[in-house]
Amino acid sequence: xxxxxxxxxxxxxxxxxxxxxxxxxxxxxxxxxxxxxxxxxxxxxxxxxxxxxxxxxxxxxxxxxxxxxxxxxxxxxxxxxxxxxxxxxxxxxxxxxxxxxxxxxxxxxxxxxxxxxxxxxxxxxxxxxxxxxxxxxxxxxxxxxxxxxxxxxxxxxxxxxxxxxxxxxxxxxxxxxxxxxxxxxxxxxxxxxxxxxxxxxxxxxxxxxxxxxxxxxxxxxxxxxxxxxxxxxxxxxxxxxxxxxxxxxxxxxxxxxxxxxxxxxxxxxxxxxxxxxxxxxxxxxxxxxxxxxxxxxxxxxxxxxxxxxxxxxxxxxxxxxxxxxxxxxxxxxxxxxxxxxxxxxxxxxxxxxxxxxxxxxxxxxxxxxxxxxxxxxxxxxxxxxxxxxxxxxxxxxxxxxxxxxxxxxxxxxxxxxxxxxxxxxxxxxxxxxxxxxxxxxxxxxxxxxxxxxxxxxxxxxxxxxxxxxxxxxxxxxxxxxxxxxxxxxxxxxxxxxxxxxxxxxxxxxxxxxxxxxxxxxxxxxxxxxxxxxxxxxxxxxxxxxxxxxxxxxxxxxxxxxxxxxxxxxxxxxxxxxxxxxxxxxxxxxxxxxxxxxxxxxxxxxxxxxxxxxxxxxxxxxxxxxxxxxxxxxxxxxxxxxxxxxxxxxxxxxxxxxxxxxxxxxxxxxxxxxxxxxxxxxxxxxxxxxxxxxxxxxxxxxxxxxxxxxxxxxxxxxxxxxxxxxxxxxxxxxxxxxxxxxxxxxxxxxxxxxxxxxxxxxxxxxxxxxxxxxxxxxxxxxxxxxxxxxxxxxxxxxxxxxxxxxxxxxxxxxxxxxxxxxxxxxxxxxxxxxxxxxxxxxxxxxxxxxxxxxxxxxxxxxxxxxxxxxxxxxxxxxxxxxxxxxxxxxxxxxxxxxxxxxxxxxxxxxxxxxxxxxxxxxxxxxxxxxxxxxxxxxxxxxxxxxxxxxxxxxxxxxxxxxxxxxxxxxxxxxxxxxxxxxxxxxxxxxxxxxxxxxxxxxxxxxxxxxxxxxxxxxx
Length: 1018
What we know:
The structure is a single chain. By secondary structure, this protein is α+β, with helices and mostly antiparallel strands. The chain folds into five domains: about 5-160 and about 205-240, PAS domain (Beta-Lactamase), CATH 3.30.450; about 255-355, 2-Layer Sandwich (Beta-Lactamase); about 365-625, GAF domain (Beta-Lactamase, 2-Layer Sandwich); about 635-875, PPM-type phosphatase domain (Phosphatase 2c, domain 1); about 880-1015, Histidine kinase-like ATPase, C-terminal domain (Heat Shock Protein 90). It has 24 helices and 38 strands. Strands 17, 18, 19, 20, 21, 22 and 23 form a seven-stranded antiparallel beta sheet that branches. It has a five-stranded antiparallel beta sheet with strand order 6-5-11-10-7. The N and C termini lie far apart (about 155 Å).
């Protein structure tokens, strides 16, 4: 097999031979001389062997030549060439012959390409004069003479390319124009060897080269001496030597692995570096393929890349492959650069691969990526964790950050005792105390159900799925799962599932295989793998996780062969030097193992979260205490009132908001009157709840003094100002110092007093929302907002409060409420008030149903503020239950009062109370006659109790005192205090009222004997 420009010739080549037999070729070659066909002459008689003749198998270059004479026909001399790609295509080899006269006799086309002149310019000329530089021509003539004398010679000869026409010059082409040799010889010609182009003639400068020439003396048919010359361009040879040295350096000295694949993707050649990695001689790799080095997945990738480069021709850079060389346990990472190798004619010969071991670079890249990921996780944790004061929410925020960015599964356990407020529970010191699973998250939720079904067949350690694992009927996504077996494949991104539910996270369910296996569970108790969110569990004191809780040091817990989990980082959650729980981060088999950097990150995440959780725990404790305090200050159960049907609702804000200062109260007043109170302390927390308690107590105290509503609010205003600055005990001190309102406890309050006899209600308002009234006939129109002057909030001071009295119709609904009912972040106040009024539609329904309806129709689930709602249906005292008489200021009025009382009690069927009531009425009327002014009014009221009131126009309040044994009087009020359930006096716009109250007989208890009570005073 030959290459371009050459063929194989077998047999003898003698000097007089004209033809030689050889293999067929596809092109003609010709020798052209001025005398005839080319030939190899016979050696002269006595010539040594080897001169003038060759014997054996040779590679002959196809050297087409041209001469000045006419061309020969193909039938005369036919030289057939071998297939293209001969070494002569790379080495500039030229052949020519010198005749007996010392001139060029024959000139080949390769000689034309080497020396730059055609046959018509060279044949018949002296080669020394034509090509040899002037300074060497003398030596050249002597050598030529020696050659023609029959002396063979080989040597390196500098040659000179004469100046020739520039093809770019107008009107001239290469080979046209005057004789370049003649021009060189002519005086002042352009080819004088100066190298300076003649711009006027358009000639290119003369150039010099170096050729290695082999000269073989021979003779013509006539016996004249001649010579055949073979010339090789030395510069080309030096280039080839350099290329060979570079190729040898790549295959022998390069620190990188080099592989040459053939067109069948089999290895043709490898260098020593590649051979040393795989532990066998370089020759032993020939004929092997990718399947002999890589696992199937990596092998398929490499073969696909090789085919692509072989077919498309483009280079492929930085192809990443992973494999484990023989005798090693850790996989290596290589980067391959692939490019196609082809012959000079463009025929693909194979694919060359330059393999660079990038294992360390990959490790450094992973470290850098891990550092960047950890920094990003810390930044994300700073913005996402701790945005809530809810324990569970804070724990879930940690898992939202950790899964899947840091791990595949995670959980948070907190000490149950801490959640219940006991900070010194037994077992917390050694880590064996009960814990509650408060949060769980997983990024491999798609495979968990199947893994639970397999029950013990998970993770066989060989990477081989269990029978039926890929059964479509089973619904198992194992064909899409990550491979958790120990394979040469590189690690993939942590927490990034390849299942269809990529990125989906499961909460509230345990994960299979996370935590101790069956044997460890038997020895150390239930593990994390069997704990549901909200469940309470414990770790025995000798378990690894209990050790983490006990020592407050993180530990890396390896998984077992039957687990999905590769390893688990158990990290204590430490806040303020106290362990509050345990955070666990797990990665499944096939994920990147945890490193020291991961351990530090897990500790940082757990510590940050522990501080937030501890803050949330303390807040929850304070919130619960404040809520307990607030509820303890509210009326227990459903309050009762004379002439009113009462219903109330109280909804505290959610745990994410602090407890507010909302309160309501129903206070029974003398004379079957009722005080209705609704208030709201501005601010939140335990202090607001405590302030609300103080104000509520003050309201009840002031109400029992039977003060007017405006007076009650005025006293409350002073008390609220004292709450804001407790160190200032006097009003003057408070007025002298500028007090910031933000430091004062402000509160709004509406105070109303309802008289069941007159159905009149007197309102006073301190910056609160107006009361709402639904009339009995208002079923088809919105409820009314009562026009009560709002006044300033309590705690501001300096402004008096106004009163408004409204007569309420029988059956009307009165509603008092706080702003949480009608205002929220998503509902303005005016819209909320309108919605509230529209929600009160049917005054005939029960109050309980109406309250529930209001809460359903309004936005009461926002949890932004407490909600207090107090509703009352007006039910006036019937006229037949009221006895009202006016008595003159006459001593006879005492007897008439006793008579009126006995008659009315008889009419009510209360004869059992007649004696006691008559006695007490006579005492009060007598006091009015003696110490009062104006006419006297007597009123008996029957409801749940019996009330007697005596009115007069005197302003002096009666004062109970203890009479001495020698005093004749002063025992009347003592007698009232002994016989009555309660008694008192109050001021009225026109005087005062003294009253007493008696309980109705229930048939079981007997009242106090009036005679015995009277005797006890002496």
